[in-house]
Queue: 2 jobs
Job 1
Amino acid sequence: MLQALFIDAAGTLIQTAEPVGDVYARHFQSDGLSLAPGPVLHAFTASFAAYDPDYAAHGTGDDAEHAYWQEIVRSTLLACGPDATAFAHSDAFPPSFDRLYRYYSAPDVWRLYPDTLEFLDRAASTARLAVVSNFDQRLIPILEGLALAPYFEQIITSSRARAAKPAPAIFQ
């Protein structure tokens, strides 16, 4: 029997129920921006890849996670044209971002991969399970809401561990 199996969350167990580009385009449309989902997704992917996942080494808790994501979303908008750039620098951006951040806190905007439950049932019969993820603290209530939390002895996020994968500290 394996001692423990560390499992990532987003992209392994869960995924967004809708493409990020679609959600962002719809969300910012309510703020008066007309954005096409494809280019927004492209901008988000580039912005997300550009940000150091070791943000958690600079602080913990909701404020650090919120600031990290706010910069990713702002960077996404900066790549989406002059109207989106102006909005990203406006006083309207912070409350709009707050609504988007809360949106992704809800379990119902996430879905399981088709084989997630079967995999977890089998894995739990052979090893102790833990989630180790560069996701932020919103992950815990998301996994609870999706009825996945009981499978895991630990749910470790990078901000909680003050280290991000692949750093050894997050696994210790």
Job 2
Amino acid sequence: MATKPSIVFVHGLWADGSCFSKLIAPLQAEGYECIASQHSLNTTAEDVAVTKITIGRVSSPVILVGHSYGGSVITGAGTDDRVVGLVYICALAPDADETSQTQQSKFPKTDVFSHIEVVDGRIWLRPEGTKYFCGDLSEQEQKLVWATQGAPKPDLFEAKVGGTAWKSKPSWYIVATKDRTVQPELERFVAKRMGATTYEVDSSHVPMLSNPSLVIDVIRTAASAVQGRSTAA
């Protein structure tokens, strides 16, 4: 019987690896080896490097699951030979000549960016900003998201990611139709450009928290599609 792929989760801004908690436990129960990469959000190169190190902590070929800015990270890290598939959740996916910032600048600015502040060299989500980031969660969950946010350096989005994994690896993409952090039209554009198997969900920017069953189903679909595929390593 073919070995199940491992799942490596890659978080975005104003988050840490705990944002995938509703996915990890069920997938572990099904026999998937799972781990979440934890990023400093200092530089894209560092976040890509940490993701590649995290890939080394699991034992079978890897599906990378990237949320938001984490999509930029898996676009760079996913060129690693150990990676056999990519799942993007409301995510950026720059081409070789793009950065996270230039990709977003082609679309209207979303509501969340009126509810951030730069303090001590970091971009923080204000408490009321959770309405635009994860507004379909309960008030208690929104407070938890705010309390566990990872605050990036202001120039994080200015760097190229160092690879375009979606050009050579199969991909799956979840579009959130009520996203107020990344434009849904941007999500549809990058999903179409990469030729991803695409799903749409009536969700805020965090369907892994508000619609975890759908996200788990997409990851299962990706895992089934690549199961048994060998890597070049």
